[in-house]
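Quick illustration for those who missed Monday's session on complexes.
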Amino acid sequence: MKISILKFICIFSIFLIYSVVWSPFAAADNHGEKEPVSYHKQIVPILKRSCQGCHHPGDPNADLIVTSYAELKRGGMAGEAIIPGKPDESLIIELISGDPPAMPQNQEPLTAEEINLFTRWILEGAKDDTPAEADETNGEYPSYTVPPVVSAMAYSPDGSTLAVSGVNEVLLYDSKSFELKARLVGKARRIQSIIYADGGKILGIAGGSPAQFGEVQLWDTATNKLIKSIRSTYDTIYGLSFSPDASRIAFGTSDKTVRVISITDEKELVRFDNHGDWVFGTVFSTDGSHFVSCSRDTALKLVEVDTGSFVDDVNSSNKGYGEINAIARHPKADQVLSVGEDRIPRLYRMFRQTRRDVGNTDFNLIKAYEAQSGSIDAVAFSVDGSKFAVGSSSGEARIYNVVDGKRLLSMQGDTVGVFALAFHPDGTQLATGGFDGKIRIFGANSGKQLNIFMSVPIETTASEDVTLTVTGMT
Ligand code: HEC
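Prediction with heme C bound:
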């Protein structure tokens, strides 16, 4: 009350002093010329509050998506909703200003002031003034006082580098000296997947920041520069894989879908939504025409890439095998090794040779291997495809012969649980990582521990002895 009286007196006195024809709208417009409407500061908050609930990428009915400027600009089913400079021709203005307005649907209409902001913003050219994303790291490297869980690792195809997951970054170690060579700092907080592609020219990293965004990063391994960051979904991305020609990527998501994206134009080619739970892994067939995905829903599904259509259930998921945590494709054949909750690695052929029967017999199964001492979280083939390694929640890592299933080695790969492992391309080393944050390097023929080091540099303080903390976790 007090304010409006003051305002009134103020306006009244201005009116008296100048004694000219004057309207409060003119004043508002003058102000507008000086200070254009800010998309970032004024429009985004309204979109977030009143529109985003229905117009976000996770909503299967949403044609229009308002969570980014680019998508808002792209428009919906009816085409562009915003014509810069022309609020009268912009669908968005028509829909928010009708009586009653069509949007926001079944909700409190926007206020006249808010509609005016939209109108002016479009009139002024509908510009995007979103500041370059705040760099969480400020150009500095993440610092650690406790070791992070190691969730992904990979050797470069030339064998020179071991890439290891950190928090907000991937760390590159020299595979001979185990010295830290480089730190690739990105936006995604959690790193779930690390994979080299295109003969080692590209390093692909997938992960995300939970409840915010999923991200795939592509790094140029010659310069250690980020080539591309592709965002998808609101949550972490898992199980990244590349098509053999490195033109496409596939990954699983916590929204139960598998996405295939073309790298050059970032176009989503496939959104496969036939899984009933989080999708943890994807692999392409040797010719790139199909992919297999694995999920917590216990299924392995075969999908044709060009059409995005479901082809076959690779395993018989009615057999009670439990959640599938990871898959790896045989380096030379269309065979996929699946591991998970029920502790038994199973090797399947991707393409069915025997027709499905009523009993849903596991006809694609080539071999079921020895049960591990805990649920299996990590799996990798040796580069020649003759051996595979698995890491389990007991902290153990084992190496097997693929063909005869013979156990060759058992190693303690972590004090708690092994979540990541990788064979050196020459077959001599197996690297493991997991809960305790340490990287262990084993002789892949001897099982001898050749090296052990912390996955990230730890800042120790007098009051906090990290080594003690870690050993205390056993
Ligand atoms: C309660 C759900 C809901 C809310 C909130 C909502 N919308 Fe919509 N909107 C819809 C539906 C449903 C459609 C029709 C399907 C579609 O295009 O997504 C639609 C369509 C549209 C379209 C046409 C898109 C096209 O396909 O061409 C525009 C523009 C639009 N809304 C703008 C807005 C704006 C701006 C807000 C916020 C001020 C808003 N909507 C809030 C549900 C909603």
